[in-house]
Amino acid sequence: MALRLRFRHPLRSFVASVDLAVEPGETVALVGPSGAGKTTTLRVVAGLLTPEWGKVSVGERVLLDTRGGRNVAPERRRVGYLFQEYALFPHLDVAGNVRFGSGDRARIGELLDRFRIGHLARARVGELSGGERQRVALARALARDPDVLLLDEPLSALDAHTRAGVRAELLELLRTLGLPALLVTHDFQDAATLADRVGVINQGEILQLGTPLELVSTPAEPFVATLSGAVLLGGTVVRSNDGLTEVALDGGLRVWSADEAAGRVNVAVYPWDVSLGPVVDADSRLNHLTAPVTSVAPTGNRVRVQVGPVVAEITGASAERLELAPGSSVTASFKATTTRLFPADGAR
């Protein structure tokens, strides 16, 4: 059964307006900054917030229709909700927390076994690791045998060491449940890993909805590009020739793009499209920017290197081979076809 929701609701500084459908077995992620309207959307589906206007249905069952006067109580909606920080009850043991979602003892035992927490049934919440707490919270959410699963920042409470492993477990779970799942996060990497489609939301509006690849390869606007990892470089179009556009960056460097544009623009460059190497002579038809390294920051098994105005993401082995350090000069290279141009006045 598909989840379908449409609502409009005024918040403190903007009006949230969402129109979204999530198919059975599909995970859709809403990604955006804090206060963008992500959790508001989950609360409307769960029945914890009644919008000014809206309609929510799962299959043929209407959960909310403000015009028709229907508003099913939260406890009757069959919605599994994984809260941020998990919201487990510290006075209950693991089995008690899962039992809170369902009185069916057989189902509780099945869920404890499914999430490999049966041996923790009598443990208190304070004795659990971050990954174990998430498993308990998921088991409790699924104990209600829900038609829909909602996940609010499911990985934000985890440390970096635990996060990757739990993310893989969560992905496997979402693929096997067969439920429509709606996930909200501020982390594009989490969204891209866990979701079939990602919606970039800001000020209560979904700016673009598509696969993670679509959002990275064809961002609709600068906000989408930056949220999906791009660095924006301000500049002015100098000329276009043979399908290429030359842009004079504000810092004095020049780059080429395969996009067409005129006037003031923002050039979007993704770090993983930038390679680093020894200093080379500039080629007017290729992007070779030679500049001092300003920062070298390990991020997991990669290294992010700031070179002049651009950022490159390379392997640790490459960083060691190039002997990168702040102040050293290196050439950052990237193809014209990997850049995106946006009118500067189109930035949100």
Can you offer a commentary on this structure?
This protein has 348 residues and is of the alpha+beta class. It is 24% helix and 36% strand. It contains nine helices and 21 strands. The protein is globular and about 70 Å long. The two termini are 36 Å apart. The mean pLDDT is 91.
Q: Looking at the structure, what is the overall shape?
A: globular
Average residue pLDDT: 91
Radius of gyration: 24 Å
User: Count of DSSP E strands?
Assistant: 21
Run of helices and strands = EEEHEEEEHHHEHEHEEHHEEEEEEEEHEE
Percent helix range = 10-25%
- Counting H and I runs of at least 4 residues, what is the number of helices? 9
- What is the strand arrangement across the widest sheet? 7-8-9-3-10-11
Distance between the termini: 36 Å
Q: Point out poorly predicted stretches.
A: none
Strand composition percent? 35-45%
- Oligomer description: single chain
Helix vs. strand class: alpha+beta
Main β-sheet: number of strands, strand sense, barrel status? 6 strands, mixed
Strands, helices and their partners?
Blueprint: E1 3-10, E2 15-22, E3 27-31, H1 38-46, E4 53-58, E5 61-65, E6 70-71, E7 79-82, H2 94-101, H3 105-114, H4 130-142, E8 148-152, H5 160-177, E9 181-185, H6 188-194, E10 197-202, E11 205-210, H7 212-217, H8 222-227, E12 231-241, E13 244-249, E14 254-257, E15 264-269, E16 275-277, E17 287-299, E18 302-307, E19 310-315, H9 316-321, E20 329-334, E21 340-343
Parallel strand pairs: 3-9, 3-10, 7-8, 8-9
Antiparallel strand pairs: 1-2, 1-4, 4-5, 5-6, 10-11, 12-13, 12-15, 13-14, 15-21, 16-20, 17-18, 17-20, 18-19
Helix pairs in contact: 2-4, 3-4
